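REVIEWER CHECKLIST
Item 1: Sequence provided? yes
Item 2: Single chain? yes
Item 3: Sequence as submitted:
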Amino acid sequence: MRHFSISIILLLFLIACGNKATDLSGNTPIKIDDFKNIFKPITLPTTISDTNFTSFIDTFKIERKALAQFIPDSIIAHIINIKNKRKAIIHPLLKIIKENEYYLLLTIEYQNKHDIVVLVFNKKNKYLDYKMITEFEKYANHSTKFIKTITINREPSFLIDENSLSTQGNVFYEKKGWAFSDGNFRLIYYDSNKQPEKKIIINPIEAAPTKNIYSANYGADAKNFIALRDNGAPNKYQFFIHFENDDNNCSGELKGLLQFKNNTATYSEKGDACIVQFTIIQNEITIKENGNCGNHRGVTCDFNNKFDRIKKSKAKK
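Item 4: Structure as written out by the authors:
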């Protein structure tokens, strides 16, 4: 009888250990299978809207240090708003298991909104890519003038559908479709009847030094230009591109770092599918998009362009 009682106690102890909650503080190592298990599996297709998405959110909180055990810290810096990182709360949302990879959906909660993020891993648990799918504003819920939904299809693809009603009674819509393919997320669908917003274009590197040989402004007009500025060495530059294509109401912006070898340089960053090649011959710069830069521009245009160097205006005496 005594041996039987001891066996029962040991069994209960083992069960309790097996059900021990995963430590998501990041202070202890986490097994990837334990991490995956905090995400709820979902049957596809499914639709999440700005009126029901809170029902998908789990009470678990994932600390940044815990997330950094599975994805690069540089990617976390993109996912979490740097200005509000102390106020950001990470929650697990959903899990999608496919034949060659699996998807983990997170929500990053701030004071006024939730950002919806998708992480992709292969079957060997190697991180592949991420995508900030959309955001849900907390105080836009249940509004008759604005409706936003995410439809996750079986592939999976992620279709974001926004509909709004103006004060004049006009209905505006915007639809974007994203899917993971060939190693990164791609924009696979876009449709909208929104009018592009008129905004002031600010060059964020305008005041940086221009001592290097290629440092200057190149452009066609105030809406289509590239700025090159010094970045610590004669062959290293920072750049900012902005363009607007009036023919199809499409625009793009890109900011980054370049290292020129002779007269050519290539923009490429880990975690970003966008690759852009720059070539300067005399006073003309040629920009050629070699990767998928859909995260930085509209779907109906690209970064392929040529700009002439803009001469500095002489200061009046």
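Item 5: Key structural point noted by reviewer: The two ends are 105 Å apart (CA to CA).
Item 6: Recommendation: ____
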